[in-house]
Amino acid sequence: MRLATWNVNSVRARVNRIVDFAVRENIDVLAMQEIKCKPEQFPYTEFEDAGYQVEVHGLNQWNGVAIASRLPLEDVQIAFPGMPGFAKGHEGPDAPQEARAIGATVDGVRVWSLYVPNGRALDDPHMTYKLHWLGALAEHTRSTLAADPHARFALVGDYNVIPYDEDNGDPEIVVGRSTHVSPEERAAFFALQEAGVTDVVRPIVPEGYTYWDYQRLKFPRNEGIRIDFVLGSPTFADAVAGAFIARDERKGEQPSDHVPVVVDLDLNPSDDDDVPMIFG
């Protein structure tokens, strides 16, 4: 199975480009974020004509997540248990949820397409929301693995966190002044991993960015950041056979400011002991 995650920054504006990429790169499952539309506005026809079933969660022109698959999508779920909500001037456990998470099972693999809140500013209520959101995701991860240590699942998407200094090539993003790099955000990201998931791409692709701002020639100068990840459970990580960041998708006409991150899975590995292992 070939799985990709991509913050497409408006699926309606880029549908042909997205579908062309999926077909060209033989993507079986494509998790999308920031689709920026309601389900009734989604361009299903283009995906279906290319052989993809699509499940969508979108509430308005902001946020929104979706999963497209050439294999059957089963047990589709909107939002993970405990996911907090947010609305300006509305704080507390009953705040309305945004369209930031959709999950489905594909060929025995549970895939979550996630769009983590941005945070907006270090002192903004949205930052508190972001940290609570990541904390709830970590708790869901712990609960899932406690119930079934062999559960094969992936939490994929735009995390809006730059975990390491080497993931930041943008000189305007500075620890102490900027979101995405604050100690609190990084701690929340690492706490999620400590809950039982692994960045399955980094061991194969240790360097590379996944986002470049449209302004100030960030892409030509390669002033990018790495914020899009595939975090997998132990059994998911064991199935990873390859990975790449599709940097060239930032080029050309009307690109998203993010690029796809792609993972190849061998769900039926050989029993041959001589087969090299990606993860020990």
Kindly name the structural category: alpha+beta
Strand order of the largest sheet: 3-4-2-1-12-11
- Work out the oligomeric state of the chains in this entry: single chain
The named CATH superfamily = Endonuclease/exonuclease/phosphatase
Shape: globular
Question: Would you tell me the overall average pLDDT?
Answer: 94
Total domain units: 1
What percent of residues adopt helix (DSSP H or I)? Answer: 10-25%
CATH class: Alpha Beta
H/E series = EHEHEEEEEHEHEEHEE
- What is the correct CATH architecture? 4-Layer Sandwich
Please tell me about this protein's structure.
The chain is an alpha+beta fold. It has one domain (2-265): Endonuclease/exonuclease/phosphatase (Deoxyribonuclease I, Chain A), CATH 3.60.10. The chain has helices at residues 11-24, 44-49, 125-147, 183-194, 234-239, and strands at residues 2-7, 29-33, 53-57, 65-69, 74-78, 101-106, 109-115, 153-158, 198-199, 228-232, 240-245, 261-265. The strands form 2 sheets. The protein has a 6-stranded mixed beta sheet with strand order 3-4-2-1-12-11. It has a 6-stranded mixed beta sheet with strand order 5-6-7-8-10-9. A hairpin with a 7-residue loop joins strand 3 and strand 4. The longest helix is centred in the middle third of the chain and has 23 residues, at 125-147. It is globular, with a radius of gyration of 18 Å. It starts with a strand and ends in a 15-residue tail after the last strand.
At a glance:
With 280 residues, the protein is an alpha+beta fold.
Task: Spell out the key features of this protein.
280 residues; alpha+beta; Deoxyribonuclease I, Chain A; 6-stranded mixed sheet; 5 helices; 22% helix; globular
